[in-house]
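Task: sequence design from structure.
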C-alpha cells in the first residue's frame, strides 16, 4: 500500500486522488473501479473484502497525493515524472506530424527540444 501501514490512512490518499480526478472532469468509474476479492480467514473459510482496480491515471493521482516522505511514494512520484518527461518529445512529434501535413512549410512550427533539455519548445517560423 505504498508504505502506508493503516488502510484508513491509505484511503485518505485515495479520496484525495478521487477528488482530483472528479475536479479535472474525468469519470471516477473510468479510473477507480470498486471490486471485491475473497481472502482466506484463519478458520479456513473465506470472506469478501473491498478492493480497487486502478488505471495508470488513478495510480498517478494516488502517487501525487501521497506522503513524499514514504520511500514507495517518492519512488512512484519519480517514476511518473520520468515517464511524463520521456513521453513529451514523442507527443510533440505526433502533434507536429498531424498538424502540419507535408508541403505546408509556410506555417508556424515548433522546434522539438532534445529529451535532455529542460527548456520548453520554442516557436519558430520556417521560411516560405
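Answer:
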Amino acid at each position: 500500500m505504498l508504505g502506508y501501514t493503516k488502510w484508513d490512512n491509505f484511503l485518505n490518499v485515495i479520496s484525495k486522488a478521487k477528488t482530483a480526478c472528479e475536479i479535472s472532469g474525468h469519470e471516477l468509474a473510468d479510473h477507480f473501479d470498486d471490486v471485491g476479492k475473497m481472502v482466506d480467514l484463519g478458520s479456513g473459510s473465506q470472506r469478501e473484502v473491498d478492493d480497487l482496480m486502478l488505471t495508470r491515471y488513478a495510480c498517478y493521482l494516488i502517487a501525487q497525493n501521497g506522503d513524499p516522505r514514504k520511500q514507495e511514494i517518492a519512488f512512484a512520484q519519480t517514476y511518473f515524472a520520468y515517464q511524463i518527461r520521456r513521453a513529451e518529445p514523442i507527443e510533440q512529434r505526433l502533434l507536429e506530424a498531424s498538424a502540419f501535413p507535408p508541403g505546408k512549410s509556410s506555417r508556424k512550427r515548433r522546434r522539438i527540444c532534445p529529451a535532455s533539455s529542460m527548456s520548453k519548445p520554442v516557436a519558430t517560423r520556417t521560411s516560405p
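The chain has four helices and four strands.
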